[in-house]
Amino acid sequence: MTTEVAVGLQGNFIGGEWVTSSSGKTFENRNPADRDDLVGIFPESGRDDVEAAVAAARKAYPGWRATPAPRRAEILYAAGEILKRDKEELARLMTREMGKVLAETRGDVQEAIDMAFLAAGEGRRLFGFTTPSELPNKFAMCIRQPLGVCALVTPWNFPMAIPAWKSMAALIAGNTIVIKPASDTPASVVALARVFEEAGLPAGVFNVVIGSGGEVGDPLITHPDVRVVSFTGSTEVGRRISVACAPTFKRLHLEMGGKNAILVLEDADVDLAVEGAVWGAFGTTGQRCTASSRLLVHEEVVGEFVDKLTARVRSIRVGNGLDHAAQMGPCVSERQRETVARYVEIGKQEGAQLVCGGEKLTDGELSRGWFFAPTIFSEATPEMRISREEIFGPVTTVIPVESFEDGVRIANSVEYGLSGSVYTRDVERAFRAMRDFETGIFYVNSSTIGAEVHLPFGGVKNTGNGHREAGIAGLDVFTEWKSIYVDFSGRLQKAQIDTHESAD
Q: CA angle, 217 as apex, 414 and 210 as ends, to 5°?
């Protein structure tokens, strides 16, 4: 691969061909840590490009569906091997276009590798089940079947892992795909398409259309030939997509916002909790839906916790993610940094105590990117906007709590329910927290980030609409159950006629 060598015009991937957009318009993709670094030039696509991509996916669907699942698995396994081979180059490309440090982008690519191998393993499973019939000489079973053309709308914070989560599950099940990557990070999905191309995926099975949500996303999700929509992004946009998909009853998977809490109890290992909070709040510059943006700390240890947290956060080295010494990169864009700055002002106005950070970083080389200092608010209350709204940046808020019960109540008081965590040495309270936190993911004595691909990923309340991705649960988004009955009795057996004798 030449992910760092050639900078030039990149195209859409439609029907196995790299093509320009129908409009001929393009936009630049630049490194958020260094605006002088041009990552690539990408097409501004529109409805005509969406039509072409959906048509290609629809044309490829019968052949891909008919391809035996073990053969589909061989292609995904080959894709995983290519991802392994090119892991370092792909990670460096991702750091350049998204900003997070190399250790994290390597992890992003590793998640794609892991998902490729997990999905490939399902090629020889894709389990349904058999079950005894209630009638003699009759066989009953159920199987999974693909749905058709899938529209994937993916975010910029995990620009390869999340597209891989979605696409690997859809492909092993026999579906075809049109993906619209985030405009801030198209290069990683283009790289993923090239991986699939090299692995031998048939033309039209995986298609990429690059452009804005309005020009590409809207016509894609409402297209009559699209059977499944899988979206990761904000709750506001997810709600609008839900409304748009409702009239045609499309299968819809939504993975949306989070306002995740770490509950630190009075018996916790405070040093361990501080390490978890630093990683959870400032990993990926806080730009994770699972970020630890609320730290609910028992009043007996909150002073010690804040002092140790502040010392650790002040030592974080912020810089270009390609610098091996950097521990935190920039915000993904100027727009995102302005959002973070606006919330810092809101926190000040609400009366929270700004302990450290709170400003844009513009000295030296940092002036070339969208850097923001890692920021801590303390003495916050659950009602404050900084305690309730998703900021999606390097800001975390410490809220004192009086008891375990008080902490759980505050943790559950927000509209989201993605991830949660408790730090305690008390196994009873650990299990109660596992049960009582209203989240789809939960950790004990660990941060709120760090999901593994073989477990379901997703949340409750305004975080999601009931589906999950990753693991075996990810197949449920992209398959339909079919129940099958085989009667070999040689006569008509009426299963839904009551043949039991009356109790009288």
A: 120
